[in-house]
Fold each of these.
Amino acid sequence: MIGTRALAVAWIMLGPVVAAYGGEVSFQKDVYPVLQANCVACHAPHGVGYERSGFSVQTYETLMKGTKYGAVITPGASDSSNLMWLLDHRGHASINMPKVCEGTSQESRKCAQASQSARWLSQHELILIKEWVDQGAKDN
């Protein structure tokens, strides 16, 4: 018989995996931590990505606002959401995320420094974000 504590630990550890395969994905628990760990260094005020596009991932509101060019998320439609195109590397190489920074310009050096905390998202993280968008991109 499995104890209550063992079940709680298993749920904490497997919660994101369960969410990625049919449960409700939480912005606060599943998506936001991924964005903060990998994207906020560039996509927050004074970051290279923010300076170039106006896109911030600091809050749900700024994420949903999108870039100075328009929204990046279409709630309920990950296939037409620019965010997924960029994270899946289906866009132009110059704007796919995370950014590969090359060159010797001041902007390239700033980009490279900020991108040190970024990495390509795992398949699991991409699925979580995709499912969250498909579920309506709710602030939950």
Note: Residues 4-134 form one domain.
Amino acid sequence: MNEPEWWAEQFEENRGRLRAVAYRILGSVSEADDAVQEAWLRLSRSDAAAIENLGGWLTTVVARVCVDTLRSRSSRREDTLEARASEAAVNRPAMSDPEREALLADSVGLALLVVLDRLTPTERIAFVLHDMFDVSFDEIASIVGRSPAAARQLASRARRRVHGAATPSHADLNRQRQVVDAFLTALRGGDFEGLIAVLDPDVLVRIDEAAARPAGPTEIRGAQAWAKGAVAFAQVARSLQPMLIDGTVGLVWAPGGRLSRVLRFTITNGKIAGADIIGNPARLRKLHLTALNE
């Protein structure tokens, strides 16, 4: 085996970890693959023999590429969430990419990706590298251009945002989760009677203009009326995920980990008595979102 082939083999041994790092930072399969490919290109242009710790070197390169991607993404925030969601819906394949589904179903979880997407680029890098991949703060500092102490603070701040503040009691949270899970199961199955069973007869649903269909209602009253219209959304409901929204269990739709729609519930006596369907970007940014512990 010649030297280029040997280095290619060494890179392939690291590819899985590099893709995991990039995916957790970026929340995008295609962008993660691009970051890993860029790491290979930089390795091929480097004096590989002078690299003492190839795995660490490659992780640093991928992380720096991801920093650039996140910062570029942040500079394009003027693109509305509605536009990104519409693009995702248009470009989504009829059959899910098995690799994409496997990645989204791994230990990260879509709900965590939603929370990570709300962090600053440096917070996200520090949290992912340290808390998920045990990279030292000295190494992280060199990647984000901060001191080790500042990198530690970034990770700590991100950790607080990821895990959230005080939440309802465990028992109350379980009761909410049972109601929301029953609603989601019925919605995904197009089960009209199942929806009626979990909705208060006088449920009030408010839909902001960004989330409403063109010429559609912005307010729906009564379980029968909402259930009748909701069963048409069984396909979309498969992409909904439970999350803590302002301290209570709700549902989010987040194509590629980018928050697009939120269903925030009011649950009374084991029934959904009210729901806010939110799509306005300004309102979405104000919500406090936390991943649920499975």
Note: The chain is about 55% helix and 15% strand.
Amino acid sequence: MKNKILVIGAGSWGTAIADILAKKNKSVDIWTRNIKISDEINNKNTNKKYFKKIKLQKNLNSISGAFDTSQYSYIFYVLPAGQFEHFIKNYLINQKINNFTICSKGLSTNGQLISVVAKAYLKFKNLYILSGPSFAEEVIKGLPTALSVSSNSSPLPLGKLFKGTNIRIYYSKNYKTLEVLGVIKNIYAIGAGIIDALSLGENARAAYIARCIAEIQFILKNSKFDNKQILTLGGIGDLILTCSSKKSRNYSFGYNFINSKNKNTNSQNKKTIEGLNSIFLINKNLELNINNLPILKSISNIVNGKPSNLEINKLFSRKFKYE
């Protein structure tokens, strides 16, 4: 069937993407391993685990278990990045895929970019990255949102799927850079939550975001990515959003980590915190020297148990420098 779409993952973001796509596309399926959620979507047009008051599009259909990828023109992967290898080995290996879109903003279990893993294991015609500042709750309510799309070929075909929706698409040239930006901003969002939990003030958070931008540019340049893309929706746009709201899981993790008596990250990670996962893996793939990244190093030290006030003082007492 022409332009039949599959969204893999019925969490908040997967449900929001699927519902928006179903408004303008006749045939949209959403995959979930949770049979109860699948039945609820099909029988009641709701997913109350994530959206208690939202009625989903009637033409949105839910599936579970094995599926045939050849039925779909477009497949969106919206499960956590850490589940990617397990999922593809169970459901996608040896199947031909037309257009595969990565919506997850994290690293695989061995620290690789999801696009790298996808290329190693999957057979697809086109690969896309969809990223940018987007809280699922606002998207599904129809509030205006702008996202970046990049591809190994042309990003235009994917953008057409969102025409006439509340999502405006901007096209990006370097898909790996866009993917890296999505990974890194989640780490820095944890730091923003830490700053607010310590009541350091809005001045401190504004300065923090500005210096994060400079540090991310340094990461991109030294890892041979396009550092100019920091000034895009997938860069500064996503960074500002996730560093400024408790709706961000990564920001909330940092905030709650400081206020929690139990500093064991494993005990707090009941939900997927992509930034937390990435901070322990990012050196493997991008070959970074963390000593050249004082902000990222301090975030890592804090979540590994070092006193937050000590780390803040280290950052603030460094030698003055030119911007």
Note: DSSP finds 15 helices and eight strands in the chain.
Amino acid sequence: MKAPAARYDRWKAPADDGQLLIWPGPAELLRDAEANHHRLTSADSVLVQNVPLPEVRRRMRLWVGQDDAQLLIAAGHQAELKHAGVWAKNALIAEAADKLTGRAFHFVVDTDEPKHLVLRWPGGSVPLSDDPSIGRAPWSGLVTPPTPAHLRYIEEVFTAAASRWDFQPLLPEFLAAMRQRSLKSSNLPNALTDALHHLDGSLGLRYDATIVSPLYASEPYLVFAHHLLARADRFGANYNAALQQFRHENRIKDPGRPMPNLKLSIDSCEVPFWLDSVSSGARSRGTVVSSRGQWALRVEGGEFRFDPADEGWTAAGRLLSWLRGQGLRLSPRALTLTALLRLLMADQFVHGIGGAQYDQVLDALIASQFGLEPPRFAVTTATLYFPDALRQPRVCLPCLVQEGHRLKHGILGPQKIQLVEQIAALPRRSPQRSALFAEMHDKLTAAWHDAPIRAWEQQLRQAEAQAQEERVLFDRELFYAIQPRERLITLIDRYRKQLG
């Protein structure tokens, strides 16, 4: 089945403070959730490793305690210090689930590289954890929580900075929640997820939050993974074709955007999974090789062959046993994880702008790989600047550059018009034309040192310095708990009103 005609938008984050983006419109978003639920629960002809999709989906949802008849509105993101535009997804899923009498779920990805784990504010920054591996661990689940001493240090440094502000940020409440959880948690994503969930609950947001890595030992996930790897050549071809279609439609010439193609050959296929050694913390890109007419994962201790004819639950059990015996975990990369969540878990999946760009690729892949009309997704983001920025007019560098252009070309007045006309009247490439052209530019250069130009240059230097200072002040990506409580609650109220 071909993916439906693109109905996507050119999403752009709001420029103004306090504004939000919801796509599609709230009424359509809610209708899409119900339509997705009906389509996915009735897709009995779609088989996942020889098991009807609705059965795999029902058992996947049951794994997180979800009633299959109840709508599930979901979002997902890496374990990180989210900015307000990312945090806004939680506001939308909570309010949409409430409107639909459903359940909201936030899936926290602890199997991606650690990033955005430095707490920043205008004039300062400090890593969230004192674990030295915070910037180099293969996945964030390997990073340990901050020690009590480090949390005290963060609090002291931040309190000194915040003492100069005329508002009360929510961050001390977040640090208090981290302090209660750090010694009890096995890793940073667990502590961070619990602390943020607690903080959002205090703001009135109601949703469930779960780390994704335990899902990778579930039978429904392994049925899904086995299905794709047993058909790695077809899946890889569909994956690359979906990427190429996206590049063509968006006039992208870079073969690495939005992500590289999978490397495919007669004897081996790269697959969009990581093969993780849970004991050593090492990771490698997933690749299957040809083995006796089937695709196989091969490691030093042996190989696992994927039989496309196997019954799904039997195949999942065999794969789980082999992975455990080898001390390995099969972790999906971004597009594969989102496919799992959209097909087997959510009735409406909410993306930010970046994820929504990637999921245009996924829509084409779902259509070609499963012969299924892709479930529709939603997009949201919002803009909250650092509160002190709201009282400061923002410098307009393009305006000043345009003013300089006007000054430069108007400084000779009517004389320049006369020179241009004289140049145009002379033969092309003639010495006279070249000499007159050089004369005009010599006069422009000499005139450039006049007082109006010097004043403009001084103004431009000052504006560039101010723009550098504003870069942090107007940074959309500061941790949302830098904001005061009332600004976050006001944004939640805007979502509530939008959803009626």
Note: The first helix runs from residue 26 to 41.
